[in-house]
Design goal:
The complex is a heterodimer of chains A (218) and B (202).
Chain A (H helix, E strand, L loop, with lengths): L1 H19 L15 E6 L10 E11 L7 E2 L2 H16 L3 E2 L10 E16 L30 E16 L3 H4 L3 E11 L4 H17 L10
Parallel strand pairs in A: 2-4, 2-5
Antiparallel strand pairs in A: 1-7, 2-3, 5-6, 6-7
Chain B lengths: L1 H12 L11 E12 L9 E14 L2 E23 L2 E23 L6 E20 L2 E20 L7 E12 L11 E14 L1
Antiparallel strand pairs in B: 1-2, 1-8, 2-3, 3-4, 4-5, 5-6, 6-7, 7-8
Classes of the chains: A alpha/beta (218), B mainly beta (202).
């Protein structure tokens, strides 16, 4: 009986060892750190019917810190100005926000910074470049890394969201329809200059990939 | 799919015991190198696959058994813009397919010689599949199960007559019914070669 149990256990371990090592993920650390840029729009809207836009002069901020609410420093102004520049480049005229009917489009920006938490088992990193295969430690071919517990690690991620509301038809619609959104997301680390650079690139790319977004004179 | 099943049935029907000598059993381990055939989700040659299996000879030239295989296919796409009905997304990414077939097999040896034993084999069973996209730090993944059929032609090569060890070399086609509509994947087809070894025992 003991022999049978040992044989059974050994077989199970061998099978497990073989298949635990069979999944080989792509080398994801070769991926670009540039933000993923996504745009969405209301396909029923004709953007050529709008002429003017107004833009909010601060960026709404959501982070793990509940006291964070507004981003208004020079970096924020640089990003806001980039949005305004892109809007003017496609033919819209900037006006000041104010009375109803003052601007056809209202634009505001939102910045989100948080930590993304991943739960992994020890040895999860096997297959990543630079992480030692079991045989690096000696004659351990076919032996997987293994443990029954797991641990967490976190990565700082951020998003910049640009929202465009239809002010021109707000009274008729009795609501402010959001008709275009640009979103940039990715890992941000701790470098302020990297964050600013990615936000500017997000704005530029969002307009570039939205060819329908222009005034009729374009 | 019908053609593949028909082809497999023809292969099965041709498998006959023309010697009633119950023989030995064998285990084998193969390295699998191949490429997906029919989709643009993950393309190109990949060498991160394998299979492990067991055969028992129910007569001299005919064996039945089981096998588990695994394949990894990934492709890198440079940063580019993908347009959808309601917008667009710009990123670079890896696409990744993991395929794990678990199957019953039937193997017919043809004109087995002292050194070389050609064979045809058909495996049929289930295939567990994963399809993933990796971009920035994000991952989108779908998992699915499908029915799979894997016809194979190959040969076992013994350098010493009567040796328990032999080399395997074969080519195989894999068809699986796994679907991932989000990636426009209607089935999985791969063409690959196996190189490995088998060990015979009673």
């Amino acid at each position: 009986m003991k022999k049978l149990n040992r044989g059974y256990l050994s077989s199970l371990l061998l099978v497990f060892a073989a298949f635990a090592s069979c999944k080989k993920l792509p080398p994801v650390d070769n991926l670009s750190s540039d933000f993923v840029v996504e745009t969405k729009y209301d396909t029923s809207v004709h953007f050529t019917t709008f002429k003017t836009f107004a833009i909010r002069d601060t960026i709404t901020v959501a982070t793990e810190n509940p006291k964070d609410s507004v981003w208004y420093d020079a970096d924020a102004q640089t990003i806001i100005n980039e949005v305004a520049k892109q809007m003017k480049a496609v033919g819209y005229t900037q006006v000041m926000p104010g009375d109803k009917g003052g601007a056809d489009l209202g634009i505001q920006l939102i910045g989100i910074r948080n930590r993304t938490i991943f739960n992994v088992t020890p040895g999860y990193w096997w297959g990543f470049p630079g992480y030692g295969d079991p045989y690096y430690w000696g004659d351990f071919y076919g032996y997987p890394y293994w443990n029954s517990y797991w641990y967490s690690y976190s990565i700082k991620t951020g998003s910049l969201i640009v929202e465009m509301a239809n002010l021109k038809d707000a009274v008729a619609n009795q609501k402010l329809n959001i008709i275009w959104t640009g979103i940039g997301s990715g890992q941000i680390g701790n470098s302020k200059s990297f964050v600013l650079d990615q936000c500017i690139k997000t704005v530029d790319q969002a307009f570039l990939q939205s060819p329908y977004l222009h005034q009729s004179t374009q | 799919m019908k053609k593949i099943i028909t082809f497999s049935l023809i292969l099965f029907s041709g498998m006959v015991c023309y010697g009633q000598q119950k023989g030995h059993s064998e285990v084998y381990l193969n390295w699998n190198l191949g490429a997906p055939l029919n989709n643009s989700f993950a393309t190109g040659f990949n060498a991160a696959g394998g299979s492990i299996g067991y055969n028992t000879f129910i007569c001299k030239n005919f064996a039945v058994g089981g096998a588990i295989g695994w394949n990894n296919y990934n492709t890198y796409y440079e940063r580019q813009t993908y347009h959808t009905k309601t917008g667009a997304i710009t990123t670079d990414m890896y696409t990744y397919i993991f395929a794990l077939p678990i199957m019953a097999t039937a193997t017919q040896y043809i004109n087995a010689g002292k050194f070389v034993s050609p064979y045809i084999k058909v495996g049929a069973g289930a295939l567990y599949g994963e399809q993933s996209q990796y971009y920035n730090i994000y991952e989108d993944r779908t998992t699915d199960w499908g029915f799979t059929v894997i016809p194979e032609v190959g040969a076992k090569i013994s350098f010493i007559p009567g040796s328990k060890w032999s080399l395997n070399a074969s080519a195989q086609y894999l068809y699986a019914t796994n679907k991932a509509s989000v990636y426009n994947l209607n089935n999985i087809q791969t063409l690959s070669v196996n190189i490995g070894a088998s060990w015979k025992f009673r």
